[in-house]
Amino acid sequence: SRVGSVSRETKETSVEVSINLDGTGICDCDTGIPFLDHMLDQLASHGLFDVRVKAKGDTHIDDHHTNEDVGLAMGTALLQALGDRKGIRRFGDFSAPLDEALVHVVLDLSGRPYLGYDLEIPTDRVGNYDTQLVEHFFQSMANTSGMTLHIRQLAGKNSHHIIEATFKAFARALRQATEYDVRRLGSIPSSKGVLSRA
Fold it and tell me: Quick check: keyword Lyase in the entry (predicted)?
């Protein structure tokens, strides 16, 4: 099975992450940030990944460090789980609606980190969660996984709906990209013959 597992320890946070790309959508996540846990549940459920995250951080200051380090660890675990990327589809493209919100996500498991982010979230917070941290989470994940990721908001007025549609679209695009293409017969999906983070 394609599983990645990462422990990350700093003076600010302690994070343990595992992801099984061939899972059934099980989420066991406790980051100390309830809204982030809710979004990780969307990632697991709609990506059909088994995701486990246990994090403790300096949330008495704010959620920034924990949110960032969970994203960094998630990306590293994804990198591990992908291995040499033989046989995968590599590209993912999905648009997800949630009521009035519509978000389009396109990604490439290319080994080249890039984030194109175009969300207009109308409020500073959803509950206690700082909505600026959404971009920071995906930037952290793209950086460590070596993913090219484009996120575009096509419609939406409700902050919760916009963010949740983003995580759902990301989950489905990532699921698409990590699935095996039977026509590839286990070959690496690159004309260069290699897909790596380096």
Answer: yes
